[in-house]
Amino acid sequence: MRTGKFRRTLARDPLPRASGLDVSGRVVAVGERVSGFSVGDAVFGMTNHFSGGVHVEVARFQQGEIQHAPENVSLEAASAVPLAAQTALQALRDCCAVTKGQRVLINGASGGVGHFAVQIARAMGLETHAVCGPSNVDFVKSLGADAVYDYTNTPAVEVRSRFDAVFDVFGKFTGSMFSDQLERGGVYVSTVPKIPTLGGELVARLGVKTSSRLVQVQSNSQDLLQIKTWIEQGLLQPHVQRSFPVEDAAQAHRQIESKRTVGKVCIALGAA
Ligand SMILES: NC(=O)c1ccc[n+]([C@@H]2O[C@H](COP(=O)([O-])OP(=O)(O)OC[C@H]3O[C@@H](n4cnc5c(N)ncnc54)[C@H](OP(=O)(O)O)[C@@H]3O)[C@@H](O)[C@H]2O)c1
Q: Ligand 1 within 6 A of 133 CB?
């Protein structure tokens, strides 16, 4: 979005504007109709406003977009969770619609969404195969993947196995490229809106065929509660590659734009 993507469609808020979709922090004020939160509570969450705008000292959220922060990780680590972990959960549970014992292939397993997807797949009891770059194979193994492939040797489309779902986090491929690897009724899920993935999602929403889906993350407090619970049970661990002071926010954005981030980066706006 910083480079102008979606400026004519979903992100038309005028520039200059604040960026950022997810945060952690402490409650400084509570609306009249809000229940369950008090001033001083540690919270984490994601705005459903497509353009974002919550990387500011005081951000406003709907009650349904936030949750109490997990108690066993730092607030900084909690800030890395809402967008990426909810995307991974909603892709696996709702779009892949896989259940315990089924087999999933995750492409782009070392990044923000991917490193949560591997851990959530494991928490869901899935057999998890994962694809990442050569320097991150050990990291992805440490997240609990059953098999890890380095895409310089074995790109996702060349993994010789059968899957109930492919979650293409990096979004490089299309569903038809996995036709030999997907079981009958299997689903390809992408994170990236492109003509084939948008078309597949439209067809799925019309109830015609659900073989290609596009995840569209929506923040909700129930999913954040599930994720918080997994974190507190030790099943999910956010990995923060680096935290940048707010003065270096542009550097944080450039790091993400490199498409080489391991886990997530954070921007620190001050002590919470
Ligand atoms: N639709 C939605 O609701 C939604 C929500 C969230 C994010 N997204 C989108 O999902 C995508 C992933 O987000 P993210 O936060 O996970 O990104 P990210 O953290 O920036 O992803 C970086 C990862 O991409 C991997 N990568 C680079 N080249 C690759 C390749 N050729 N094949 C496989 N993996 C490769 C890198 O792995 P190595 O370093 O190991 O090479 C790196 O770990 C982005 O396009 C983002 O915009 C969509």
A: yes
